[in-house]
Amino acid sequence: MHLAYPAVLAVLLFSVGLYGVLGRRNAILVLMSVELMLNAVNLNLVAFDVWLRDTLHAGQALTLFTITIAAAEIGIGLAIVLLVYRNRGSSDVDRLTDLAETGPAVPGAGGTPDAAADEKAEATA
């Protein structure tokens, strides 16, 4: 078996998954794209395991671990996405700001000085 065929297919799968993660806004599509990327890695692991004729079949064993971790990731990720959809009515990744830390901006700690000045003006008013 030529190693180039599964390697090219894995590169294509990983590229499509990377585009899906970076270019999509729907959380379900982002999770599906992560799965595509993991499947590309699994394809590489199995292809190199066959190509190297490993007697321990380490590539196939690592593939089983990857599939297990991917199943757990999808289970937890899908539960989070469903809860966010119930609460917000949308699964748009760009609009998810509920978990962002919002607090007073501290001058010199990465916050903008204008925000700190505005807060002082509001406190004295």
Question: Can you tag this structure with a few keywords?
Answer:
mainly alpha
Explain the overall architecture:
- The chain has four helices and no strands.
- It is elongated, with a radius of gyration of 22 Å.
- The protein has helices at 4-23, 27-52, 58-88, 113-124.
- It is mainly alpha-helical.
- α1 (4-23) packs antiparallel against α2 (27-52) and α2 (27-52) runs antiparallel to α3 (58-88).
A few lines on this structure:
By secondary structure, the chain is mainly alpha-helical. Helices cover 71% and strands 0% of the residues.
Distance between the termini: 76 Å
Per DSSP, the total helix count is: 4
Helix and strand run? HHHH
Residue-averaged pLDDT: 85
Uncertain residue ranges? none
Major β-sheet, in short? none
Count all strands and give the number.
0
The proportion of residues in beta strands is: under 5%
Q: What structural class results from the helix and strand content?
A: mainly alpha
| Helix fraction by DSSP (H/I, runs of at least 4) | over 70%
Shape verdict: elongated
Q: Rg from C-alpha positions?
A: 22 Å
Q: Any chance you could write out the topology, listing elements then pairs?
A:
Elements: H1 4-23, H2 27-52, H3 58-88, H4 113-124
Helix pairs in contact: 1-2, 2-3
